[in-house]
Structure of dTDP-4-dehydrorhamnose 3,5-epimerase:
Amino acid sequence: MKILQTALPGVVVIEPQVFGDARGFFYESYNEAKYREAGIERRFVQSNVSRSARGVLRGLHYQWPNPQGKLVSVLEGEVYDVAVDIRRGSPTFGRWAGAMLTADNHRHFWIPEGFAHGFCVLSEFATFTYQCTALYDREGDASLRWNDADIGIDWPVSAPLLSDKDTRAPFLKDVPAERLPVYAP
């Protein structure tokens, strides 16, 4: 497995070793010992799968005060996935990193606790899977505006299909400080 660093410390792309031939392929999608060696020492307590059509953008989502770390990947199709550092006091506050995740490249994207997360679908459909380090907390559920100019994400879609929640999400500068995670070096 290869770990590819992003512009955000702690946010990484993971490329598993894929073994394939004319019959198909095999790869380890998670190996606790290898992830620990790579510095990802988390316990996953919830697993989710979503399927979305081309043009759907989900995010930017986060939970506070019970944050979730997310290990995400694509089983079918292709998405552009994004993490945004929203930890108050972080030297990379408001910055983002993105990765192409496809069924063909088998990549995983690790988004630690304290980051907002979103993705947009570029294929006809995409089946997206994510392992979470904390259970979903409806009371702590929050989101940021997908096209916040202060964050400046270079999304590969200009008019995405959004949920009502994501359409109404606030800009990062409008979120009260107590509703954001705190950076802990």
User: Anything to note?
Assistant: The mean pLDDT is 97. The chain has one domain: 2-173. Residues 2-173 form a domain with the Jelly Rolls fold (CATH 2.60.120.10).
